[in-house]
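> Could you send the Uridine kinase prediction when you get a chance?

Sure thing. Input:
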Amino acid sequence: MSALSPQPSSKSATHTDLQANKYIPPWTSPYIIGVAGFSGSGKTTVAQKIIEQINEPWTVLLSMDNFYKPLTPEQRELAYQNEYDFDTPEAYDLEGFYNCIISLKEGKKTQVPVYSFALHNRTGENISIYGANVIIVEGIYSLYDPKVLALMDTKIYVDTDLDICYCRRLLRDIVERKRDIEGIIEQWEKFVKPSSVASVKPTMYNADIVIPHGSDNTKAIDMIIKHIRKQLQKKSEEHLAHLAGLGRVVVPLKYDNIKVLPKTNQLLGMKSIILNRETSNDDFIFYFDRIASTLISEALELVHYSPAPYDIITPSGHRITDGVVQAQEVVAVNIIKSGDCFMRSLRKIIPEAIVGKVLIQSDSQTGEPQLHTERLPQFSPGCKVLLFDAQVISGAAATMAVKVILDHGVEESEIVLVVYLASETGLRRILNAFPNVKIVVGNLSAVEPKEGQDNDTDWWMSMRFIDARRDDGTPIFINVETDRYGLPTLSLRPMAVTLGKPDVGSPMADEQSRAVAMMSKFGCGSGRDLPISAISGTIMRAATVCDTNVAMTSTIMPNRHRTVNRAEPSSLAWIASAMVLSSPETVTAFPRARPPIASMTIVHG
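Output:
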């Protein structure tokens, strides 16, 4: 096994953090908001307004309506006759509701039941929820159970006049739940109104904030949203600081867990070809596939094998009694997008391999890594998981991906991170958080500058890039540096150079001049950096060049078309999510009502 530098530099040693020995993702401490009030008071409307305004894609709206207790046949018959009381606390599965919130708060994948008001019973289907940063709990008894109250960060009561609630309930039950008006009136007078006064109204005293007049009180809702945004910003800063702490040297790392490919002439030659900007796309892919096959073969050495339970008969009739067979199931997980570049080699080595995907992108404003989506298979007990990422620079995305896999029941020692390029800083961050993870790396840098070796300070190690080619074949490199936290940052400084050297008077020459002007406009000409993720950086580059909105179309998913506004985080996340299953990944960028400027193939980033 190859080792990292055994002794940390004196500068690094002074920046220790004894608390940075465990990674805590944002979804293990979600911000929980409770919204309660009478039936028809506008709870759902208030919750939806909060979701729209805070603009957090990892927000979950958890309705208590899904936690009605299953009814017996006798109770169901009473319900059809409007003789069953659904508005008493005893009608809800409060224990199941509490356990669901606890599971989400612990960062586990949680199954939420689906309730049908037409059938007066649960449908048997479940909704899977994982990775929620904000949880909004909505229901008439959201603020009723003391155990649930203890889990909430903000408690809101929507106070609306009962007569208004009555009118809203009539309209809702007739239109949405297909009920007859006589039954609605009978149920209101017999069950809903008495329970609202006796059981729901007292929960108002458990609230931190009371909103008079419900969803019509826009000033109160705006005040709540500002408070929530402030708390979420604080959580984001804490997460970034925690990630930065994981990159500091605290305790000696388990260097035995890292396998680095030997620097043979063959490997160095292929590395030189990959770095050469004159290399064609076909050659780039061919030589990277060769390196990827070597990395995967090294990773498979960590898979357990056992003696074959049967004798092997060769074609010539000879019997072999000491054969071995693979004793572990191998599951591959890609960190989108760069992990896809290993799939061609993986399919050649293990054609039947099960493949999962996680999309982790950095926030365009803060650089905080965020889990956008996960499509993971059911992991069998004791399986070996190969986690693929082309490059580990800051280590933030890989650290989060490992945590996602652990949350799905995989043992830490059964995870193998396979990466072509890695900085020592990034690996320290990963191993500080998860010391039992195995890592197989093709090219590794060192923190301390060493003559004749790759170092974290070299451009080759400190910058990530997306290789793209214009329609005329001219390569475009979009460089991504690391900020003071070690997180990816798109650098706009080499923009005028990386756009190539078009002929004077050509359309691309005009676009290049406009790009330089845009750099100055946004204050980037002086060398300041703009935090953004790799894929978002591609879109940002195109938008900056065009000085307009840019239409992005995935050629693999041609129906997924949308105009992307420059620096719009939700749009950047959309195009990344739309390309989750695309391979190869090609995006055409063009300003509206104009021909394509560039056809960019994302090779890795």
